[in-house]
Design brief:
Layout: H1 2-44, H2 49-56, E1 59-64, E2 67-72, H3 73-99, H4 105-129, H5 147-157, H6 163-187, H7 194-212, H8 218-235, H9 240-249, H10 252-278, H11 291-321, H12 333-342, H13 347-357, H14 362-412
Antiparallel strand pairs: 1-2
Helix pairs in contact: 1-5, 1-10, 3-6, 3-9, 3-10, 4-6, 4-11, 5-6, 5-14, 6-12, 7-8, 7-9, 8-9, 11-12, 11-14, 12-14, 13-14
């Protein structure tokens, strides 16, 4: 009994350390992500832009025995390396569901509802702006929040904030990831090959049995994971979903060790490589010269900037008024507005969905990416200003309280 009690007491500390480590890695990774995106944009708009396009169209062959996959370098990054990123996302979701903020439905309810608002309202605004156009299928683009950029911005401009807003944003972003994964799996996968999908499911079942039997060796799980990824890729379901599924099947204890090893790799290598491969869009007004492409970029910007802010704040306040939940300790309404502004940074997953939404139309992809880049810059600026304002007001309030306490002590003396 004593040992069980000790374990229960140790759990919050372990989870707290895991969250702090996750936030620290995301904050540092945001700098690498920003640098890679900047390099891609400058390169794609330089006299050497042809080299940028040639690099990512380089043909590659992935072979393992009788299995051969012909992909270009861009597909290797988006389909293979990003599966590792989504595997880490799956591990984080599993940890939050078992040991973290999502474990208690009452605690998770409010940021989960906020995340729903931050997905639904941007999608609705996008559909309204794009009604009757050939790009309305891209409604999933403004639904995402980029955890790395959002957490990085919060770390940079919100250093004096209490832990409540940070945990609220982290939980919101994780639930947002769950929604983005569901949207990709259901709406942005190609025609399904039932046979290949069946083999992928069988591979996942084998992984689950291996974990159940206590098998942890890499030489069992790695071949199974590669097989699941391959058959998912061949089935028409986007291959990154395999990463999520494998992460959700991993026990939390093993998952924490994997996150510790893989999270720096995905934050400092995979995601920056993805940005380098996908953010290189020629910033040319001619790219938005047609009514359709210009309207698409506007729809993305309005969805991410205005939709995220309005959706997160509106859904949260309605939920609080209905008594569904309350803000974390130390978090005020002004913090909520600032967090909602930061949530409009939808960089990584938004770019990813843009590629999936318009696979046969590069003009629409480029217009959507321009919208994502512009929206992320606007949301980052807005979020930074709101965070500065919250800290300024909080500092003034804190100073006034200290002054009143000092006067009371002086009077009492």
């Amino acid at each position: 009994m004593r040992q069980n009690a000790d374990r229960q007491q140790a759990r919050p500390a372990r989870v707290s350390r895991a969250v702090r480590e996750f936030l620290a890695t995301e904050s540092a990774g945001a700098a690498a992500l920003f640098a890679a995106a900047l390099v891609a944009i400058v390169w794609a708009n330089s006299p050497w832009s042809a080299g940028y396009n040639q690099l990512w169209s380089t043909a590659t062959r992935l072979s393992a025995g009788p299995v051969h996959l012909d992909m270009d370098l861009h597909q290797v990054v988006n389909d293979a390396l990003m599966a590792v990123f989504f595997f880490v996302v799956g591990l984080e979701i599993k940890r939050e569901l078992v040991d973290g903020e999502l474990r208690d439905p009452r605690t998770a309810a409010l940021p989960a509802i906020a995340a729903a608002g931050g997905m639904v309202v941007p999608a609705l605004l996008f559909v309204l702006i794009g009604a009757g156009t050939d790009f309305s299928h891209g409604w999933g683009i403004p639904m995402a929040t980029d955890i790395a950029f959002a957490v990085g911005l919060l770390g940079l401009f919100g250093r004096g904030l209490p832990s409540g807003p940070r945990l609220f944003l982290l939980t919101l972003a994780i639930v947002d990831d769950i929604g983005a994964i569901a949207v990709i799996a259901i709406f942005y996968s190609s025609s399904i090959d039932a046979g290949a999908l069946g083999w992928a499911v069988a591979g996942l079942a084998a992984v689950a049995v291996a974990w159940r039997l206590g098998v942890t060796t890499l030489w069992v799980h790695l071949p199974l994971a590669l097989a699941v990824w391959y058959f998912t890729h061949e089935s028409g379901v986007h291959a990154t979903i395999a990463g999520v599924a494998l992460g959700l099947l991993t026990p939390v204890r093993n998952g924490e060790r994997l996150v510790h090893r893989l999270h720096p790799f995905t934050s400092f290598a995979v995601v920056p490589l993805f940005a380098l491969a996908n953010a290189g869009v020629g910033i040319d007004t001619r790219a938005l010269s047609s009514g359709s492409t210009a309207r698409l970029a506007v729809a993305v910007v309005v969805g991410l900037v205005a939709g995220k802010l309005a959706g997160v704040v509106l859904f949260t306040r309605v939920a609080m008024a209905a008594g569904v939940g309350r803000l974390p300790e130390g978090m005020r309404q002004s913090h909520l507005v600032a967090v909602a502004g930061v949530a409009g940074i939808g960089f990584t997953v938004s770019l990813f969905v843009a590629e999936l939404a318009f696979p046969a139309d590069r003009e629409l992809v480029d217009a959507a990416k321009i919208g994502v880049l512009a929206a992320s810059l606007i949301a980052a600026t807005l979020g930074a200003l709101l965070l500065r304002r919250v800290q300024s007001v909080g500092g003034e309030r804190g100073g006034a309280q200290r002054e009143r306490r000092s006067r009371r002590r002086t009077t009492g003396a």
